[in-house]
Amino acid sequence: MSNFKVVIKVTSKCNLCGECVKYCPTNTFEIINNELVIHQERCIYCRGCEVLCPNKALKVELLNEGLEITIKEPLTKGFT
Q1: pLDDT tens for residues 25-61?
Q2: Cα separation of 68 and 80, whole Å?
Q3: pLDDT at 1 over 50
Q4: Can you give the pTM of this predicted structure?
Q5: CATH number of 5-63
Q6: 61 with 9: CB under 8 angstroms?
Q7: Which of 34, 33, 31, 36 lies closest to 57, judged by CA?
Q8: Residue ranges per domain, the chain?
Q9: Is residue 50 a contact partner of residue 40, using CB atoms and an 8 Å limit?
Q10: Which uninterrupted H or E stretch holds 60?
């Protein structure tokens, strides 16, 4: 889905409230058999789950792998 990689860490503060499951636009989270299952490859790094988690149990980290930066010429022509 994306050209970057993320790592989603869950602390022991998670009480399986399901807010991350309800919010996530890419269905990254599921609760299966009373356990939070994370599909990290679906994450688009919006970090909404971090903000909405009432226990601050989630941390989403962007890895440098797969990132590509292109430097373009500055837009100076025609501007005064």
Answers
A1: 999 999 999 999 999 999 999 999 999 999 999 999 9
A2: 31
A3: no
A4: 0.74
A5: 3.30.70.20
A6: yes
A7: 36
A8: 5-63
A9: no
A10: strand 58-63
